[in-house]
Each structure stands twice: as C-alpha cells, then as structure tokens.
Amino acid sequence: MDLDEDLALLAEYELIDQYKRLNFALSNLSEGGQGTSGYKFTPEQIENVKAAHVGKKHSAETKAKMSAAKKGKPPNNTGKVYKMKEPMPLELRLKLGEQRRGRVMSEESSRKKSLATKGRALSETNRANIKLAWQNPELRAQHSQKMKEIIAMKKLQKTV
User: Fold this and answer.
1) What whole-number distance in Å separates Cα of residue 119 and Cα of residue 128?
2) Is 10 exposed, middle or buried (0-12, 13-18, 19+ CB in 10 A)?
3) Are 16 and 32 in contact (CB under 8 A)?
4) pTM value surpassing 0.70
5) What pLDDT shows up at residue 3?
6) Under the phi-then-psi rule, with left for phi > 0, alpha for psi from -120 to 50, and beta for the rest, what region is 55?
7) Residues 10-23: what's their mean pLDDT?
8) How far apart are CA 85 and CA 92, in angstroms?
C-alpha cells in the first residue's frame, strides 16, 4: 500500500481515536498524526548516541534470544543485488607485490599460524582435491621448486 505522508498521519490519528473509544489501554503520548517525520539528527546527537553504545556488549542470554528469533528466517540480504568491484589495476597489483615481496613472518607468528591449522579436519572434498593435485607432475614440480626457493631464502636470512 502506498500512502502519502499526510494520509498516513491522518490514518494514525483515526486508528488511535477508534482504539481509545473501544477502551484499549494505549501508551501513545499524543492523539496521533503529529509524528516527527523528516527529522534529521544533528551531528552532536549522532555522536551522543554512538558514545552511549561504545564498549557495551550483549549478554550471552541476549545473544541466545537474538539467535532464536532469527532461526528459520531468510537472511537480511535476500534479494539484494551487489555490484562487483572493478578488478585491481595491474600497475597497482605489481606495486603492492613489490612492497610485500621479501617480508618474513616472525618466528612467533609462524608458530601461531602453524598451530592454528594443525589437527584441523579436512572435508572429503578437500582431501580428494589435494590428492588429485598431487597426481599432476607439473604441479608437483612447481611446488617443489617454490619450496626449494623458500628454504634457500630462510637459510640466507638466518646467516644475515
């Protein structure tokens, strides 16, 4: 239904009036039809609202209630169309690659990354894809060459 604003405010006024005549206990502070439509918050008001919520977290009970309320409902982005970003220009990719080339992960970061992936179960699909990839001799040779380069770089860095 497509109502213009004046008609919607009039309908609100009429409905509140009807409910009051039927002795419904309403919590409306006005008779209706006097909404604040079109009101724009000032930057200060926006900052105050933001500041009031910073650092606050929902309790586990509240999170469970929110989760239960969403179960069985479609995702919020159903039906939305997203525009794909344009691919990164080759010039920029090369520049970023040059900046990042030669970076070495710290020993601690390397250990953490290793621990995070150890013991993680792979799906049957992942296992099948890995097995298939290792059956390709060209791919194995590429991987072997890369590993040799990485080991050589690590040895070189340890001596420096």
Assistant:
1) 18
2) middle
3) yes
4) no
5) 67
6) left
7) 82
8) 15
